Structure formats: structure tokens, C-alpha cells
Amino acid sequence: MEHTASELMTVNAARLLRDGDVVFVGVGLPNLACNLARRTHAPNLVMIYEAGVIGARPARLPLSIGDPTLVSGALSVCSMYDIFTLYLQRGNVDVGFLGGAQIDKFGNINATVIGPYDHPKVRLPGSGGSQEIAAWANRCYIITPHQKRRFPEKVDFRTSAGFLSGKTERQVAGVRGGGPQAVVTDLGILEPDENGELILTALHPGVAVEQAVANTGWALRVSDQLKITELPGEEELRILREELDPTGIYIK
Amino acid sequence: MEHTASELMTVNAARLLRDGDVVFVGVGLPNLACNLARRTHAPNLVMIYEAGVIGARPARLPLSIGDPTLVSGALSVCSMYDIFTLYLQRGNVDVGFLGGAQIDKFGNINATVIGPYDHPKVRLPGSGGSQEIAAWANRCYIITPHQKRRFPEKVDFRTSAGFLSGKTERQVAGVRGGGPQAVVTDLGILEPDENGELILTALHPGVAVEQAVANTGWALRVSDQLKITELPGEEELRILREELDPTGIYIK
Amino acid sequence: MTKLCSLAEAVSQHVHDGDCVYAAGFTHLIPFAAGHEMIRQGRKNLTLARATPDLIYDQMVAAGCARKIIFSYMGNPGVGSLRILRTEVEAGRLEVDEYSHFGMITRLQAGASGLPFLPMNPTAAVDLEQSNPNIRRVIDPYSGRELIAVPALHPDVAIIHVQRADVNGNAQIWGILGEQKEVAFAARKVILTAEEIVEEDVIRSDPNRTMIPGFIVSAVCHVPYCAHPSYTQGYYDRDNAFYLEWDKISESPDAVQAWLQEWVYGVRDSLEYWDKLGAEVHNRLKVNPRLASPVNYGDY
Amino acid sequence: MTKLCSLAEAVSQHVHDGDCVYAAGFTHLIPFAAGHEMIRQGRKNLTLARATPDLIYDQMVAAGCARKIIFSYMGNPGVGSLRILRTEVEAGRLEVDEYSHFGMITRLQAGASGLPFLPMNPTAAVDLEQSNPNIRRVIDPYSGRELIAVPALHPDVAIIHVQRADVNGNAQIWGILGEQKEVAFAARKVILTAEEIVEEDVIRSDPNRTMIPGFIVSAVCHVPYCAHPSYTQGYYDRDNAFYLEWDKISESPDAVQAWLQEWVYGVRDSLEYWDKLGAEVHNRLKVNPRLASPVNYGDY
To answer: How far apart, in whole angstroms, are the C-alpha atoms of residue B198 and residue B212?
Structure first.
């Protein structure tokens, strides 16, 4: 079956989720990925939104993470202070999804500024919840198109921490979460090696290593156990297209 | 009209409350005094209980400060952390009532131990909410029978701060509340002088200065503007006896 | 003791040029009508604080109300940039005081609690801390480790929209709570806008639902549909179409000024604004009922 | 994924000798049935933590379950002393870790938040601080002033009684909230006791009422009347007569042991205990309904 780049990324991200995971969900593709996982292999996934919603069961695809459809029929709603303390800082969140304008070799993310902070060339939205999600969720995943400008060797501004300059630096910093576990792109999947450097560990069917290397801003290393991902299945695509995003806002 | 010592203290304490005051209420006589004030000159009194109840309208006299009658029909219920932070520490409480086994010359209160802390002769209940009420309520009132053992020159243990060793010491400590404003006893009323020392400022009708002095553990000074309190009025006593404590649990 | 007045009176009496204003609400209950009223009354040099400035502050900045912004996520949620804010910040015309969401909310929690600061665990991402002298370190007196500290925020005025309140300002909220309670207690003054003004007995029937006690409230305004294009849970839907439309409008400064002329300066108040939206929008945002299960407090 | 089991199973599996136990509830919702079950199962050397130890810990100490108490008000509320606790402390047989209410609750809030400590403003009453090395100072990094600090409390087991929960442990509470939520999140394990087990749909109909999410709960026990002589708002009244009676019983160690024999060791579980209380008590504690006003979440 034909599929779009967004469908490919969403399906591969969904497969990284485990049944019973408590997931801090963002809008867009992460939201689609979580809902897809819940309808397939992870029926007990608990979706948490930074707006203070726990166990949402959205009846429609929300544009924002504060949509009323997330509230009606949810398990619990609490204040934002509670979400960030009782849930995230306390260690009750298994998975966080992150995004940003730049992701570097060690999975550090920039969502704040291109250029200097005081005189930005481009002012981006800023951290929102991501500084703490990146630090404290047990596992973090990143979904992003694979483009050289999005993957610089070093980000202009560290909005949220990956492995800093290497895994030991994160360990020394003493943050509780495990850091980024995978970056899902439209070409394949990057994962941290033992030093926290993102290396190519999987390619989607039909993609060449050279494509991934050419679209990465650092000298991308390739795992000696490089895998090929499974194509999105018919049922996965049906759920995405018919149930989750029938008007194709995100998956087109 | 005849009245008991408890009725006398309750009526005099009620008269210290102002309309619109937000009062942190304790059980027993403070509770009676607040409800009496609300039914007479202070209809807009807001009663707060450390259990997390705001604007209670108890339909019956509660034995404890966590009684269900305080909740049904209240304006708001919140957590204990909220009551102590948003209400008390933030400065939203006008009046606090305090009690204890010992009250000293500077209004410091002991509700913790008689004798040394590690090997107490008598183990009392401890602070509960009083350490913070004494520090942060704008005004504090104490209702207590006038007995020498209750009024030592210096308490064995400072559970909550009055004026410490004098008003400047409290000011230097930087606590936000004004400290004890009056001690209502069955003989009269003590109030702090400019140095924070409790002096006799009023006697109940028929009581002699000597009685108050003899029942105080320090050399009690007498205000040169000593007043005589007004006797409890008929309406005040009727409300206490018929509406608030019909079985006479507290006012006997 | 009623505090009931019009929103125009409340803004006129309680919001002054140069104030720090916090119009509360995370996606939900954003008091757009109050933002528009501040624009109509020509407030200047405001410090605008909100975790998510959202369209309300994009519009107020476009109208020239602000000199500084305190925030933690400057985006049009699910859509993209807040173009006006972004342009003003890139041009250096708007002062910035920036945090993560947790940092922002912690500032409010400290302010609401009467504490000078509150700690947060470190995140290992230090660039923002190094750019903002308000973010400091504090030593944990037990482990000796460094934690992050942010200072209390005390807005001069909080504007809080709620589902229902009584005339004294006792207010109930359900759905997303965001930072409503924390802002109300942190601020020096509270202006309350409510979808419905109800009898005190309605409030007293469900005290656990009451987030804000009347005695910290300065003014109570009856403002139905106050939140549009944001929403009020159970009352009307979020106008996602307008959030997408604003992304187009705000591409052009002229289009923005024309929009302000038509929808803010050109209407008297939020009722006229709602009326002007018309039946099609009203219908699109209508919500069918879905009631909470009954709760029994008992008659004690 | 049901976590439903009997209270005996939950205590047997999750409460171990030497644990720090926090049976939550400020006057309201005190899980007496769980205290009695711990007595029946002969738990020893427990550290018992509660702001107000109340009769539940007086009884557990009388039964020899505890070696240490963490508390902030050791009284029989509105009545007088907790005689057994007082005697044990005066005799030096029970270790003491004492705070003000605010200090105790702040320890829980820190624990629930994943922070090592939280600050409080100074009160100028320093005697308790000088007696308890757990109470320390922390420097406000803005003013340089000293604040008071207390360390996070992480009980091994929290026992939380609630009005209603589903089989996964999603739980709703109304009435006095005390420190229920903070204890649940601070603890390593949570045992939930509920007046009613309801369908998940009942919980989902009113998400703002849910205090505890199922995924932090280890066991869910259906225990009607669990709280007697404490109470459950809307379900039954507080048994003030028993609180007064305990003041008499606890004057004599023999009377206390006889009471434990009859009302704890002599009954199998809380249902038998409630039955044994008899019709007169049941009638006295019965409550007429008083319902909350309806709330509409909207069908989005």
C-alpha cells in the first residue's frame, strides 16, 4: 500500500510504544502515533497532556493539546502544577515526545532561537513543556523529517537536553530520565550509541544509507546491525486514514 | 442575666471580630465565638478551618474541626496544603484563634511539652496548625481560663511565637502577622503593650484587679486606661444557649 | 457586598498603564473579551504574562498595549507561530522574560503560596538559565545538591474566566484548570469574568468545585462567550477555524489592523462581538450536554 | 488489569514489618478497617505517619504494631489526649518525629512532587526546629533570607479511603481532602479502599473529581464503612460518641485490650465489625442526601 512520509513516521513511532506506557503526548504526529498504538498493540496506553489531562480518550483529532475533547471522558484532570510535579517530576511518565527546529548529534534540541538569544535571527516558540519532559520522562522519542538543517552537529541553543556532549555528561548531571531513545524520520531511525551519539540503526524500505548521511549535518555513523523497518500495515493505515485523521490534516 | 465563665469568654471574644474578617477557626469556644459574631454584628465573617474548609455554615455544633457539617453548604473545600499556603502563608487570613497549656508574658504559647522535649513530664498534643497561625494571621486571639499555671513568666517550649522576648524581636524575625492582640479570660482581657508584654486592659464586671494579678504567673501590669467589659447581652446568651450549644457541651 | 460590574468598569477601575497583567487559562477559558476591552480602553506599557501568550496577547501587542512579555511557549497551539509577537521580539521592540512551562507555573505557585521562590529539579538544559538572571540555583540542605529556583510572580491584575460564579466572586471551574487558581492567589487583584452568575446556593452545593473564594476577588463581570475563540468547557467549543485564520491574518500588519478595527474597536462589547460572529459560527461552536455523575454531600 | 482484592490480601501483600505506613485522611475518610487488619495480621515495628494520629494509631500502638510515630497533632480532636500514644511517648517507648501541620503536609507535598525538600516561611517559633534535625534552613537565592526546609516524606505504603473508585484504582473524593492526593503520590505503594466500586464510565463522567489515577495504585479493596468511627462524606456520619467513649476506654490498659479483643481480633473483617455495631449505631450515623448541582462537560 502507498503511504505518505507522515504516515511512515507515525506508524514507526507508534511501534515504539509499549502496552501500559504512560505517555506525555504532544499534538500532531505524536498524538496520532499514541492513538494508533492504543488501537493496535497497546490498548492500555495512558495518554497525558501538559494541560493537565490524564487518560484522555479524544473522540476527534484535537488541533491543540488543550482541546475540550481531551477532557470529556478523560480519567482525571488536574492543574498544570500538578501535571509537572506529581506526574512528570515525580517520575510517573514513561514516555515523552519531543520536537524542535534543530536536533543535534547527541539528541539535544533547540526550540528557542536561531542565532543569539538576545538578538535572534529567528525567534521560535520556546520550551513549553519540553525542557522537563526531556529531563524526566523515562524514554523520549523525536519525530521529524530528515533534513540537514534540522540535524546540525550542535544546536544554537539547548532548549532541552539530550545527552549533552556525551552520555556520561547526562549521567553526571543527575537527571532522572533516560534521554532520547530514538529519532524517527522519514528515512529511518536514529538511536543513541553507548556514548549517546545518534547513529543510524534502521532504514525504511527502499531508502539508501547515503540518503540518510547526506541529509544529516554531522558525520552520521551507521550501526553494524542496521535494520530495515517493516512497511506500514494495511490495518495501521486504515486506522490512521479512516479513524484518526479522516480529513488528512497531519498525514498528508 | 446569669452567665457561665465560658459564656463570658465567648461573648467577649466574639466582640473582637469585625464584619468581613476571614477567621481561621478552632473547635470549642473559638467556634462558638465566630458563630455568635456571624449571627450578630459580623454577618459577613468568613470561617476557615485547617481541614481545608472555607466559608463553612455548620448546621450543628461540630465536635472536631473536620466534621462533615462544616463541608455541606460551605463555599469551598481545598487540600490542607492549599489552606496553609494559599490562605494562611499568603496572608489571606485576618484572624487566628490560639490555645495551649501555657501562655507567657509575651504571648508565646506552649502546646507541646511540660518538661524537657526529649523526656517530657507531660506530652501535649503539639502544634497542629498553631505555629503558622500565630506567625501569619494578621491578628491572633487567645481564649483561656485565668489560672496561674496557665500563665507562667516563660513557657517551657515555644510551640508558637507571640512577641518572643519583646515586640522588636518579633519584628526582626520578619513574620508577617501582627501577633496576639488579646487574651480573653474569665477575669478580663490582656493586651500587648508597646513592647509586646501582656498587660491587663479590661476586667469583667465584678472582678477585682487583685484577682487577675494573683492568677497570673508574672508581675501583671495594669493599663492606666483599664476598662470594664459590658456584660453578655440577653440576645448573645440566647443565641449561644438556644442556637449554638443547646446541649451545653462548651458553655456549661 | 456584590462585586458585580461591567467588564468595561472593571478594566477601567483595576487595570492601569504599566501594570503586569495575567489573563489566565491554558487553551481553555482565555478571557479574550477582557483583552479586547483593554485594547479599546487604550492601555499602554503593560507587562503581559501568560504561559502561552496565544492570540490574545498577539492581538494586544498588535494594538500597542505592551512593553514586555513573560511566557513559556510563544506559539499558536497546533498551528505555528504567533507572528506579531515573533516579529516584535526579533526586532527587539518587546522585552522578554522567558521560562519553561514548569518554570512559569512554579513562579505562580510560589506567588500564590506567599513564598519568595520555589525549587525545581535540574534538567541539564542550562542555556535558558544562563540567558535569564531570574533563574537561579538553591542548595538542597539535605543532599547539598543544587536545584533550580524561580522567583514568585505577583501580577498586578489577574483576569480569570470561569463557568459560574456568585455575585461575591466565589467561582467554580471544570475542564482544564491550567494555572487559574495559582494566578488568582498570586495576583494583587482579581477580575473575574463568568459565563453565568448563579445563586450562592449553587456554589455551596458543591464546595469541592470552588477554585476561587470571593474574598480575593475585586470585580465580578457577567461575560457570556468571553473566551471566544478559546472555549468554555460545556458551554461552547474552541473555534479552531479562527486559530487557523489568524495565522493568515497576522501575515499582514494591515490585515491585523483592519481586523482590530472591525472586531475590537468596531464593537461595543463582547455581546456585540458574539452577535457579529453570526448564526453559522454559533451553530458550529454549539455543544451537546454530557453531564457529570451525581455526587452526594449528605445533609449533616 | 483489575487490582481488586480483599483488604486482608492487600495488607498481607503490601504492608511489611518495619514499613513506614501512612493511613491518610484528616478527620475524614480515616481507613480504620485497614488499621484493624494490620493489627489482626500482627504487623510489628511500623513507623506510623499521620498529621493527626487519631484513634487509629492509638489503637495500633496499643496493639504493639509501631516503633515510631511521625505526626503534627497528637490529640483526640475536640476531646483531649490520645492517652496511649501520650503514655508511650512519655515513657520513651515510642520514637517521635514531629512537625507542625504545615511542616508535615509540606513533607508530603515535596515527596509527591519528586523534590528533595520544600521551603516554608519562618514562624519565629524555633523550639521544634531545634529539637528535630530534620527541620533545616535554606537560603532564598533572591533576598538572601533564611527560610525553613523540611525533607520529602516517602511512606512505603499509603492507605487511602475514597468514596468511589473503579477496579483499576482511578478514585474520586469529595468533602475534606486533607492530604490524600499528596500521600498517594509521595508513597511507594498505594492501597485504595473504597465505599463503592463503580464502572470506569462513572469516573470518566467527571474527570475533575478524580484525585488518584489508577496507575499509581497497587491494590483496590471494596470496604464499605471502612472509616468508622471516622466518616465518609455523603455516606455516613462521624461517630462522635465513639470518639468520646474512647477517651474513657483508653484510661485503662485492660479496657483497651478488651476492646481490641472484642472489636478487632474478635471479628473477621470490617463487614462483621459494622454488623456488630448494630442497628442503633447504623441509624444514628445515617445521612440524608444533599446533592451537588449538575455540571455539564459537553459532548465534544
So the answer is: 12
Angle between helices D253-260 and D54-62 (to 10 degrees): 100
Residue B156 vs residues A22, A74, B108, B168: alpha-carbon distances, Å = 52, 54, 10, 22
CB A50 within 8 A of CB A79: no
Q: How many residues does chain A have?
A: 252
Of B20, B67, B73, the CB nearest to C204: B73
Is residue A195 in some structural domain? yes
Out of C1, C113, C207, the one facing B90 most closely (by C-beta) is C113
As annotated, the active-site residues of B are 50
- Residues C35-46: what's their mean pLDDT? 98
**pTM higher than 0.95, yes or no?**
yes
Instruction: For residue A159, give the nearest of C77, C128, C137 by alpha carbon.
Output: C128
Coil, strand or helix: which one is D37?
Answer: helix
D299 in contact with A at a CB cutoff of 8 Å?
A: yes
Tell me, yes or no, if C98 comes closer than 8 A to chain A by beta carbon: yes
C51 touches chain A (CB under 8 A): yes
Alpha-carbon torsion B110, B115, B118, B120, what sign? negative
Judged on CB neighbours under 10 Å (0-12, 13-18, 19+), B61 is buried
**How many whole angstroms from its chain centre is CA B80?**
21
Instruction: Give the pLDDT mean for D227-243.
Output: 98
Residue B81 is assigned to a structural domain of this protein: yes
* HSE, side-chain direction, 13 A CA sphere, residue D212: 40
Residue B170 pLDDT more than 80?
A: yes
Q: What is the extent of the structural domain holding B15? A: 5-244
Q: Is the pLDDT of residue A199 over 80?
A: yes
- The dihedral built from the CA positions of residue D220, D223, D227 and D233, taken in this order, carries a sign that is positive
CATH of domain C7-116+152-285: 3.40.1080.10
Question: Does D84 contact A at CB distance below 8 Å?
Answer: no
**Number of inter-chain CB pairs under 8 A, B vs D:** 175
**Does residue A1 register a pLDDT over 90?**
no
Nearest chain A Cα distance for residue D107, angstroms: 14
pLDDT at A173 over 90: yes
Alpha carbon distance A130, A127 (integer Å): 5
State the average pLDDT over residues B96-118.
Answer: 96
> By three-state DSSP, how is residue D258 classified?
helix
C171 min Cα distance to partner chain B (Å) = 9
Rounded Cα distance between D15 and C252, Å, is 65
pLDDT computed for residue A61 by the predictor: 84
| pLDDT band with cut points at 50, 70 and 90 for residue B200 | very high
Nearest by CB to residue B66, choosing from D28, D75, D174, is D28
Backbone angles phi, psi at C129, to 5 degrees: -55, -40
Residue C36 is inside which H or E element, if any?
A: helix C32-40
What pLDDT, in 10s, does the model give residues B151-160? 999 999 999 9
CA distance A90 to chain C (A): 10
d(CA C227, CA C246): 16
Domain CATH for B115? 3.40.1080.10
- Note whether C142 contacts D136, CB cutoff 8 Å: yes
Amino acid B98 reads L
| Contact call for B135 and D231, based on CB within 8 A | no
Ranges assigned E (strand) in chain C: 20-23, 46-49, 66-71, 75-76, 80-81, 95-98, 117-120, 136-139, 146-151, 157-165, 171-172, 189-197, 210-212, 219-222
Residue A251 belongs to some domain of the structure: no
pLDDT in tens, B74-93: 999 999 999 999 999 999 99
pLDDT in tens, C174-183: 999 999 999 9
Checking ipTM against 0.95, whether it exceeds it is: yes
The answer to whether residue B252 is domain-embedded is: no
Domain count along chain B: 1
What is the reported pLDDT for B26? 83
DSSP-derived secondary structure letter, B231: P
For an interface test with B, give the residue of C106, C113, C168, C299 to mutate (most B CBs within 10 A): C113
